Amino acid sequence: METAFFSFKNHLLLLLLFSVLLLILTIHPLEAESEDAAIISRFQQYLQINTAQPSPQYQQSADFLISQAKSIGLEFQSIEFAQNKPLVLLKWPGSDPSLPSILLNSHTDVVPVEQHKWAHHPFGAHVDSDGNIFARGSQDMKCVGMQYLEAIRRLKSSGFHPLRSVYLSFVPDEEIGSRDGAKKFADSEIFNSMNVGIALDEGLASPSENYRTFYAERNPWWLVIKATGPPGHGAKLYDNSAIENLLKSVESIRRFRASQFDLVKAGLKAEGEVFSVNMVFLKAGTPSPTGFVMNLQPSEAEAGFDIRVPPTADPESLERQFAEEWAPISRNMTFQFKEKASIHDKFGRPMLTKTDSSNPWWILLEEAVRKANGKLSKPEIFPASTDARYIRERGLPAIGFSPMANTPILLHDHNEASV
Ligand SMILES: [Zn+2]
């Protein structure tokens, strides 16, 4: 079906688009020096807008993006799915609006900083003598949003006209779960009307020469297990105390964690292909004015786990494991989810974007990277979550791709930089 929509012009569009993304990072001909300086300066302006959670300057960021759209000549609108959280949607109309469109998504917010641990001001966008640009968001992911814009600026000024429409969405709140951002956007009438055929979103920098791509991601399941039992004197040994029962579960969860980690350490599986399980809280004890009562075994004990579930997992067998081994009724235990992201899309299929010859978009991406003298490593499952999940949930293909090779992974770190 999908291939019927393709034509040479479409191939060209993607080839150019992807190629230019790479060219921006890799080619610096002398005659383009002043153009390069202008590109860097625009990137710095975007980085200098403090969009750190929890109080991002979204309006300034929207104003900046709209000014870019005007200077490039793109259609623009600012949409608020939640008050004061503008989503900027830009459009480069294609000559055949009946064809599925291309969506280039990026989020405008960034994670907070511990300013005193930075060598340069995190919103100064300082460029050092090696050309490194220091700022929060320089990798995650204002660099990607700007690359989309600069690629289109270049294509447009070269006289290229796309056959398909190209949309750019600059969305808020990705770093706090996207409830008022990509989630509402992907559920909206506006999104339906865009008739998206393929989306690009964020990936990760690559310390090697190979660019990384992501075709799926792990799903967060936040599990709380709770044990109850009779309170007991601190001196008495007896069965079924809440803490004893909870600890039995903690032991089996730790064994499961180790078995998954062993697969990664042995090189048999990539990080995104296994379950990660990390305990995030442990709650028990009877408070007293000086701390905790020391001669009483408490009647309740709880533990919380951040579990990341690979897209190929069987959710039913997993829940069975929770009920039978991690929180069995036989040990007076219960469990509940604080978050349980769906593993399947709305058609009941695992949320994976094909990265083989059955997906013409993937073939185009591969070709474009090769033509720009780049190399790709094996496509991966993103270990955490991105906005791409809301697009894949709708059954649409999405690839995570932050074109940064030979770059240390510095997202969310002190001294985040584009190199
Ligand atoms: Zn990000």
From TrEMBL:
This is Uncharacterized protein. It comes from Populus alba (White poplar).
